[in-house]
Every structure is written in C-alpha cells, then in structure tokens.
Amino acid sequence: MSTANTISEKVVTTHVLSAMKQRGEKISMLTAYDYSLAKILDQAGIDVILVGDSASNVMAGNVTTLPITLDQMIYHAASVQRAVNRSLIVVDLPFGTYQGDPIEALHSAVRIMKETGCGAVKMEGGEEIIESVKRIITAGIPVMGHLGLTPQSINKFGTYAVRAQEEAEASKLISDAHKLEEAGCFAIVIEKVPAKLAGKIAKEVKVPIIGIGAGGGVDGQVLVLHDMLGINKDFSPRFLRRYADLFSVITEATRGYIADVKSGDFPNENEQY
Ligand code: KIV
User: Fold this and answer.
1) How confident is the model at residue 233 (pLDDT cuts 50, 70, 90)?
2) Which atom of ligand 1 approaches the CA of 29 most closely?
C-alpha cells in the first residue's frame, strides 16, 4: 500500500538506480523545469528527472548557468515535484551555493530538500568539493556528482569543447569519479568526454554513470529536454539526437492561430458561449 508518506515500490529511488546498473539496465534521464512537461515525462516512464541549472539558459535566456539562484531553482523544482509520481527528481545546486564551505553547501541542499520535496541534489566538481559532498550525504541527502564538462566552470575552461582529451585531465577525472563514489554519491553525470574514458570509468566504479556526450559505454543517458524535442534550433552538438521538431510544430501552430484570429475564423460558433 502506498500513501503520501510512504515510498511505493514503483517509485524510482537511488537504490533502484543501483540495482539497474547491477543488472545492466540502462537509466533514462531528462531535464524538466516546469509542472506540465514534468508530468508528461513521468507518465511516459522516465527514470530520473533533472531540474538542471540549464534552466538558466533554457527558461531564462542567460548565456551561462551561473546567474540562476537557489530561490529560482527551488521554484522550478517545486513545480516539477508537484507533477511527478514515479521518477526520481534530482535538483542542481546552483553556482555559488556550495563551493564556499561544507556548512553553506549543507544549508543549500537542506533548503532544496525541505522546500521542494525532491529526492536528491547534483553538484559539479570532484576533489575540490568533496568535503561539501560528504557533509550533505552525512545529513541523509543523496548526491549525484557531475564531472567532465561542468558548465558552472565555463569561465575557467573558456569553451564548451570536449573535456579530458589530455592524459592529465583524464587521470584527474578517473580519480575524481572514485573520490565521489567513496564519498557516497549514488550516481555521477559525466559530460562531453571521450567515450572510451567514460566507458572505462563506468566499468571501474559501482555507482551508475550517466553520460551526456560520453558515448554508449556508460550506465545511462541524459539530455536537455528542450534540445531533444527540437525546440532550440541553435544548439546542435554531435551528441544530441533530436526526437521531435517542436520548433516547426510550434511555429506552424502559432502562424495558424494568428491567421485564424486575423481572418475572424477563430472563434467559430462552437467555440463561444
Ligand atoms: O543542467 C543540466 O541540464 C545538466 C545536464 C546537462 C546534465 O547538468
């Protein structure tokens, strides 16, 4: 039996994801930032919904993920949580809310858990944030790591190019993945690194590795929903597969509506009281 206060067996938890890795079942993950689209993803059977700080770009039109605030992330995450019955919801800790010290990181993560009801937080970085990761996990909050291309560090990298192509960066990535696993992360996103490297890490660590632009040798995949739905035509990295052309669908629908309003065809007799 399931009530609002118990976790049903059908609900995706961090333990379910771990079991999926063990039996070789791939994990599906997509971003969502609002109630309506999150409801569709949940009902379609997505395993994990990421309330990504990519909301800064996708929803607010910022050039980077840096400007989005903790309050704004909480607004998006609470909207998603109200829509979801089954998927695990992971929420990005935004830039500047966890890099300072472990106590600040804990306060940020606690606010997300208390004010949104979501299931986990995601944090970008390896060794440099490990004390904050540990402090949050000690408080009973599941943490998903994020390595490789970490967009919150774009001003350090200078470009969104493929990461860890050089030996030194690849070794640090491997070492960071092990450190995050040892710290207790339940999964790690690895973004835009060579497929061979990501596959090697997925074999070495026990926690699920979720890739974006990291090839097929990992334990699951994540994409930004608006990119895979073809809403955003301007972003076409090699790793992106588009499953729809909503840019054209929405453009055609809008043009049709404008034409009908202008011509007086809308509303017709059946569309009024
Ligand atoms: O914010 C985001 O959408 C992400 C994904 C790209 C993994 O972190």
Assistant:
1) confident
2) 7
Of 124, 199, 202, nearest in space to 157 by CA: 124
Site residues for ligand 1, CB cut-off 6 Å: 31, 50, 52-54, 92, 189, 191, 212, 222, 224
Just give the CATH number of 3-242.
3.20.20.60
Helices (H), the chain: 14-22, 35-44, 55-58, 70-81, 102-116, 130-138, 154-157, 167-183, 195-204, 225-228, 246-263
Q: Which residue out of 115, 128, 131, 191 is catalytically annotated? A: 191
pLDDT digits 0-9 by tens, 51-90: 999 999 999 999 999 999 999 999 999 999 999 999 999 9
Can you give the residue ranges of every domain in the chain?
A: 3-242, 246-273
Task: Please indicate, yes or no, whether the overall pTM of this predicted structure exceeds 0.85.
Answer: yes
Q: What is the pLDDT of residues 101-134, one digit of tens each?
A: 999 999 999 999 999 999 999 999 999 999 999 9
Partners of 88 in beta bridges: 48
